Amino acid sequence: MSLKIGTRGSKLALAQTATVMKKLLSRGIASEKVIIATEGDTVTTVPLHQIGSQGAFVRALDDAILAGTIDCAVHSMKDIPAIRPSGLFTAAILKRDSPADFLAHSCPLNRVRTVGTSSTRRRAQLLRHDPSVTPRDLRGNVDTRIRKMNAGECDAIVLAEAGLTRLGIRLPGERLPPETFVPAPNQGTIAVVSRADPSIMEVLSSLDHLDTRTDVATERAVMEELGGGCYTPIGIWCNGGHLIAEVLSLDGTRCERVEQDIRDLPQAREVGRTMKAKAQGLIDEAYAQLGLTL
Fold it and tell me: Which of 88, 222, 233, 274 is the least buried, fewest Cβ under 10 Å from its Cβ?
């Protein structure tokens, strides 16, 4: 069997796809990559929340799988929306890399005043940590964001540490502890999505890492119950069953947070429901301030 694997064309997406293809080849499975442009790649002049809906980096690949153009697609798991089209299956979740964010800076840390990021979560967490910084909206792939920082558009940028590792990029800066700067749900995780075809699913299942699948399933269960979409400042991280989740105001001054051990998905969903009841005001406020509707 030879698989057609869909991917975005960014360097990071291609690196992640190369990892999957290498793992498949080690199991005797040949594959070829098919590059597909997504809305998140082609619309780069506005913040992500203005594109209009979740799944900006996923929809075109989903469509290609369902149309039979490709057999499967490689994604950063955090980009995959909670609601999925019928006929698709997350066939493999690779062992998680670092879930943490990384603060890269072009000047000494004590002189950082402007930080580039398009994530409302990262903006809120930065402001909570240091209200004197000024977040600036910054989109584009990793190379673009680094280039903009070096050109002086901002003093620092926030990137996923896992992405830098996969690209082999070393930058001056520091890892932001995930206990404090709680990551986006499923950050640091690569997923392979396929059609619900038993022959394809069986091949891809050999790549699956059970402990990672369990942790990310916990994070997604909390995320699904919380709602709020990808525009609300929400951090959710589960590590070996230990969950930390928080919802912040856009300015980082207020927060609802929970930290506890989770034994199963029903408990995770209950935590999400309880947290939603407490954080609904923050979620509604974020959408109102961003000019969006739930």
Answer: 274
